[in-house]
């Protein structure tokens, strides 16, 4: 029985009025079929675009990673001028790869993101190791600092540099960066600590085993590492790549960066400007608000860092311990506006 006969039998339509209603029913059914076909087509196209993006990311990331690895391998046995050139090229490519990963975060799965970040961290470690082996520097890097910088920070920073150097592993590396490429403070309690732009100079900054301290880092570090921080207030200028936080508690942190990785941290406030996304793991009671610290050369340091001031994803936090889709993680919150700190001590 065809559709027209079926509708006529069901409703007992007759004459012109019945024919009009049958036609209306047929048009509605036809429209529904068209809309369903369009919906299926859009879903298929959307899935295809997502797959294409994922495939493009995977191929591009893999190709660039291999290229960097080959550059580092080719440094072995080469003369100093060639090594310097290849390390510079590898450094630029690594920074570009970090940016490519940051820009791709929104469509990557958690697994893909973890794998890519681990691969990038391995590249950064290999780069630091190759630089340390092929282009060794003098033991005490701070001797090259200007007299003005020494005068500003002599009471604290020289001791801190020695602490960092003596507390580092025998290989001279901490988290993949050579000790000669680092500056920072270590093993201090109840101190007010500062670093100037001249001291930082896009180096890796390491702060470790600090308690009840206030830290002001004016400048643009390459990376910032915070380890074993207790009851501290740490304010930092724009970090050109990543901030790594591990074993921090009862503290207040403030910084702009490309990426934030936070582990084993609790009861800590983070005033953040991040151009990709923030990641937490094994954390509890962490709260976020937009970056609000200011100092006279902040705009200049933003320019040096290369960060986009108009792009801040401070509310986009991925909790690797909470994968329940559609349900907010209980391990982090947004700091209510009335409770946010707006006045920072010098």
From TrEMBL:
InterPro entries (alphabetical): C-CAP_CF_C-like (IPR017901), CAP/MinC_C (IPR016098), CARP_motif (IPR006599), TBCC (IPR027684), TBCC_N (IPR031925), TBCC_N_sf (IPR038397), Tubulin-bd_cofactor_C_dom (IPR012945)
One Pfam family this sequence matches: TBCC_N
One record GO biological process: post-chaperonin tubulin folding pathway
Chain residue ranges for the region called Disordered: 1-20, 30-49
Primary localisation category: cytoplasm
Record keywords: Acetylation, Chaperone, Cytoplasm, Phosphoprotein
Any GO MF annotation of the entry: tubulin binding
Bias-annotated ranges (Basic and acidic residues): 30-46
Record text on subunit structure and interactions: Supercomplex made of cofactors A to E. Cofactors A and D function by capturing and stabilizing tubulin in a quasi-native conformation. Cofactor E binds to the cofactor D-tubulin complex; interaction with cofactor C then causes the release of tubulin polypeptides that are committed to the native state.
Family to which the UniProt record says this protein belongs: Belongs to the TBCC family.
Protein purpose: Tubulin-folding protein; involved in the final step of the tubulin folding pathway.
PANTHER family attached to this UniProt entry: TUBULIN FOLDING COFACTOR C, TUBULIN-SPECIFIC CHAPERONE C
Protein name: Tubulin-specific chaperone C
